[in-house]
């Protein structure tokens, strides 16, 4: 069983427990996830850690642009599901770039902007995070085309 710093067992069944909090005491809030695309040999710069902390974000590091896109799509689906089921509003997890996207990564950005324009795409610029494009407001409504793309076309009943 996990323990805290003094070897006291932690009660992980309490839904209010979070390993990553911003603030202290009653004002502490859980950090939201974000996906950071970083090269395999690229160290995560300290300004990024500080910028993410100030934004209330905790990073999920991905080294492959396709995996980063998949992760941000999964986080988006989870947030939309929570919104549709009436849970409190949850901002979508942003995708963070350490440098301006180029080549295949830029193709991925173009696809994200076209397919799911409500996902925030951020760029670390110096020691701040900047939005790469305007974000369309998200909706809890589920697009039937999105459901079909996830489930596939309905099966034909035999005649």
Number of domains: 1
Poorly predicted spans: 1-6, 8-19
Biggest β-sheet, characterized? Answer: 5 strands, mixed
> Taking all residues together, what is the mean pLDDT?
76
CATH class: Alpha Beta
Distance separating the two termini? 56 Å
What's the quaternary structure here?
single chain
Could you state the order of secondary-structure elements as H and E?
EEEHEHEHEEH
Q: Give the overall silhouette.
A: globular
Placed side by side, the strands forming the largest sheet appear as 4-3-5-6-7
CATH architecture: 3-Layer(aba) Sandwich
Strand proportion, as a percent range, falls in 15-25%
Q: Report the total helices.
A: 4
Estimated helix fraction: 25-40%
Count all strands and give the number.
7
Structural class: alpha/beta
The CATH topology comes to Rossmann fold
Radius of gyration, taken over Cα atoms and rounded to an integer in Å: 19 Å
Describe this structure in words.
- By secondary structure, this protein is of the alpha/beta class.
- It has one domain (29-151): 3-Layer(aba) Sandwich (Rossmann fold).
- It is built from 4 helices and 7 strands.
- A 5-stranded mixed sheet has the order 4-3-5-6-7, with helices on both faces.
- A hairpin with a 2-residue loop joins strand 6 and strand 7 (128-131).
- The termini are far apart.
- Residues 1-6 and 8-19 have low confidence and may be disordered.
């Amino acid at each position: 069983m996990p323990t805290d710093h003094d070897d006291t067992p932690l009660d992980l069944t309490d839904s209010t427990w979070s390993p990553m909090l911003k603030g202290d005491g009653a004002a502490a809030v859980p950090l939201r996830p974000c996906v950071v695309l970083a090269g395999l040999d690229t160290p995560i710069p300290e300004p990024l850690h500080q910028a993410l902390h100030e934004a209330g974000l905790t990073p999920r590091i991905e080294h492959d642009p396709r995996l980063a896109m998949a992760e941000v799509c999964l986080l988006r689906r989870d947030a939309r599901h929570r919104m549709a089921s009436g849970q409190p509003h949850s901002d979508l997890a942003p995708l963070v770039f350490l440098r301006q996207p180029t080549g295949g990564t830029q193709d991925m950005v173009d696809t994200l902007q076209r397919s799911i324009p409500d996902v925030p795409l951020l760029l670390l610029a110096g020691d701040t995070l900047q939005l790469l494009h305007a974000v369309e407001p998200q909706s809890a409504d589920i697009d039937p085309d999105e459901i079909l793309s996830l489930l596939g076309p309905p099966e034909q009943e035999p005649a």
